[in-house]
Protein 1
Amino acid sequence: MKQKLINLAEKYLSNEDPSHDINHALRVLSNAETIVEKEGGDLEIIWPAALFHDIVNYPKNSPKSKYSSRDSAEVTEKILRELDFYPTKKIPQVMTVIVEHSQSNGFKPSSLESKIIQDADRLECTGAIAIMRTFCSSGQMKRTFYNDHDLFCEERVPDKNNYAIDFFYDRLLMISEKMNTDTGKKIAKSRGEFLYLFLEQLKREIT
């Protein structure tokens, strides 16, 4: 079942945004499976939720962005209902998990599977991969790298819509505090240390 779902994800996921492509989905899947090994969880729900959670991905600076998870859940439902190998009774749970994974909408997970997928996706927002994704999105949004008057947000509120580095102070550096599972927290804390190393090196190069 897992491989069949991966094959479908490769078919359906767009490659227009490298930070939300099939590789992102596969990394989230891998993160989720790592957490499941320690925390438990239903893999038949985890697999499709991880692979299709971003099947609809509106630009972050679009008014429709807040509907990405809802629309992803609806598209995923249509895909799963056409499959003869996926248990129909689990489709509503998959939809709920996808809706609840959203960080920007502030959903609180209502199940272990939702906690795991939310954590697995949040792990993409810390560590080396988070830096790559942040600057990828910044290029698409035409967002400036940094505010040259106050690069590290020491005397101003972070403005993530206009400066890439501000996204670190608005979200990336706080990821470990927002994780749901003990396993997710440990991984996020380890990855988060690299973000500080990056910022320290950036400071040496620019200031």
Protein 2
Amino acid sequence: MPRVKDPDRPDSRKLKGDASRERFLEAAAELISERGYAASGVDEICRRAGVVKSALYWHFGSKEKLLAAVIDRVGKSWVEEVSKSVYLEGTPESRLDRFIEGLEKIAIENGRLLRLLVGVAFQQRAVAPAALEALLLSHANARAAVVRGCEDALGAKLPDFDLIADLVMAFMNDLVLRGLVGQRSAELTRRLHHLRGLILLDLQRQLREAGLPPL
């Protein structure tokens, strides 16, 4: 009798395919953050992933689409971390503290991914439109997550939260350029503390202008 497949049993080929796809994403993220996109060849990505080249094209179709998938993952990780850092509990200032702590966690634990995004942004001419579109979408989603984080921290909506988001995004990019991501240092803590002060000052200004009570 033919063997009947158990619908609850995982498909071993699918599991193997998912695992190889994951290795490609990890290897590409590591290599591109270290060397930049243009200097990260398909052969080297495959060697680092430990998967044959044909599998890369089967999963992604091209190096450019692999980059777009990597950027999409980085952006989602950004949004997830920002969203987790602030929740509606405690005073607005304590929520702001958690938000800043969340940014520090992103800088330390996901510094490699931040370097990748900034590196791709500086090499726009070398990447395909699909990857640039993914980069712009990633930036927009991360910026929107910061705006939501400000709204959650304050428990209200104010008109200039988008400017605070721009400040945060520029600040994180500056950390990359200064080589402060991926490490815990007194300088990183100092800069984050200053960012907190700037955000708090602007929140107080916006509350005052809106006729709302101060924090």
Protein 3
Amino acid sequence: MAKSARERLLDVTFEEIYINGYAATAIDTILQKAKAPKGSLYHHFGSKKNLVLAMIQERLFPKMDSFFIFKKVDNSVYKSFKLILLQIAKNNQLITYGCPMYRLIVELSPVDKDFDNLLQKKYSQLVSSIEILLQSGIDDGEFNKNLDAKHFAKFILSSVWGILSLSPSISNQKNFLEQSKFILEALNSYKTT
């Protein structure tokens, strides 16, 4: 079944904004690549800003949720984070262009309150998900009680985003895996066994 103009607009907007950023993405480019008339943009969204806000909620956030599935692997929180980091390393688009949510936070949060509120809410949800997983490791005795789950959750997310924020010319899978070792070593230092 063919996608509707609205769905095509959201898909193309995600790709264009992810690769080029909000400011560098022209509505005409989105319309051309989505093979959608200009009227469909205004009919469904009203403006570029509303289109991008919808894309964040309907395309970006579900991708973030599916990629960062924070659950125990083999009853081990440590193994869970190792798996997540390996999955990121295997995603060429993430390695090349970085985290799309991080990129939007950097570009749009300082200049637009609507984007900032939406993106910060999701950031808080991601941190909370990581915190819950870490806390389960503490509660189950995998990690000692010196591990501050909330602050370490922020450390993990900011570290991953930091590694992914390198320019495409120096970002690669090997570099990501080398840098990820430090996150895992820091987490391993809290293990009880």
